[in-house]
User: Fold this.
Amino acid sequence: MNRYDVIVVGAGPAGLSAAIEAAKLGLKAIVFDENAKPGGQLFKQIHKFFGSKEHKAKVRGFKIGEELLQEASKNGVEVVLNAIVTGLYMDKEVTVKQDDKIVHYKGDTVIIATGASENMVPFEGWTLPGVIGAGAAQTMMNLHRTRPGEKVLMLGSGNVGLVVSYQLLQAGCEVAALVDAAPRVGGYGVHAAKVARCGVPFYLSHTIIKAEGTDCVTGVTIGEVDSSWKIIPGSEKHFDVDTICLAVGLSPMSQLAKMAGCEMEENPLKGGTVPICDEYGETSVKGIFVAGDVSGIEEASSAMIEGRIAGIAAARSLGYIDEEALKEKSKELEAALGSLRQGMFGPGSKGKEIIQTEEGYEISKSLLTKGYIAEDEIFRYPGVTKKTGLHPVIECSQNIPCNPCQDACRKGCIKIGENITSLPVVDQDSECTGCGLCVASCSGQCIFLVEDGIEEGYSAVTMPYEFLPLPRKGDMGAALDRSGTKVCEAEVLEVRVAKAFDHTNLLTIKVPADMTMKARFYVGQEV
Amino acid sequence: MERSIDLGTFVPEPDDDMLICRCEEITKGEIRQAVHDGMFTIEEIRRWLRAGMGLCQGQTCGKLVKGIVAKELKMSPWKIEPATSRAPMRPVEMRIMGNEQLEG
Assistant:
């Protein structure tokens, strides 16, 4: 039988990271993945990641995937694709479907990094073609370059629903509405804001009543729910759509761990059935580890760290390193993981209503219900400053673990401090050169540069812009406010494209002076 | 598991004809009825109705079935034990299952 020091199931962020770390310590490592392409969900993630440098913040997900693959191959990790692990038996015997045979392998340790599957929600017509998971929509767009539909309704306002809505817009689809039965937006406010300012209406406390159509989706009816999740009669709203995307959460795919006899628990905070494991990811079966979403739903950044920890722990359990080395190596990783889990979206805050930031700023109610910060709320936040000259306006209003903007400004104009979840503070006395690096560095696209008085009665607003085709200097169009409403005419003054911006282009528009703090998006004139 | 729960009489619901398990085409009403017929665990529902026994092996409907069973039993879905996990984890053709190789 083929023997390996460590067999990793799943070549996503957790699995690859685990194999890399184990291989670095001398273990013979193999990774199996059922897909034709490695990287798990990473290659669908075209947006910039949050976090700090150590978490690969402001790097786009698919780039992180490429880096992981390179690192794996450099360290001699064998990655086998189209290889379905069908079972995990006694003494860590693994059966894998490869081509037209079932091949047996034996691992001295096994790391299960199988990830998660999408939840579904049933409603009348939910089995019609055109009702798809948000992850499926992402696969179609970002891997197969196919639009899932022309007009889409998104159910779910968590980060998946928000990020995929934005990507649908980028792909040229119309997003008719973003709907969530919860009374508040579940994902990051900055993700919501970039969808809202494109004009997508948010319907919180609403759910789908039915998908319409006989052979495929031709429309959808939603309705408002009361506090006991019952539809309020008369609140029905209809949309003509050809696609309904469901982003209603993920469930750990932990069946392999269960089959192997690991002690399991039903844990709502972790999204479903998960193996009980220690701080290194080791399950109740010695030598079987779990890492990533399979051990509890989080996101790719924490999955990578969990993977690295599990890889190191596997090396320890086989005696490649001693206990002290394990403690030392995992300490830094645990700290990095800890900082990612801070803030109002961390596991400790799940399900809690948060009314103010750690600093004591009141959370925007409009952001939580409509997806954008209202005009009378925006000046609350320390990144939003009033000044005549050129300066950044940072519309960051929630404690999320992210700090690339702080490093982006060479003039030291932006300060977050030690705690990476703190809101960025703009130092009014620092001089802004208008380089725009902060605008492009913000994974949440919530930094703008504004300058009053560029000519009599006019101001300039610079915004992050990730849509194609790019507007051109001199183009005339309309400026939209945070809610996506057209507020004034706008002229394109400049479009900046630079390698350092990594495809977050900088669009500068000229707007009337009273629109400086309103204009946050641009649409070209329809031809 | 407590077997003597009084579930009352089965009252049809307007969306009982909604498909829950797409692979095996099992409706919400069939699952509700099965609970009233005494199938209190996911394992029993699977054996009785084949819900979750098709191509996707309950990957899509597992949580939904659990929710329906829990509601009928008036208990939290988190208290319902999930189905047993068995190989193969994914559908595998019989000719491949029979083609086992100890050396790859």
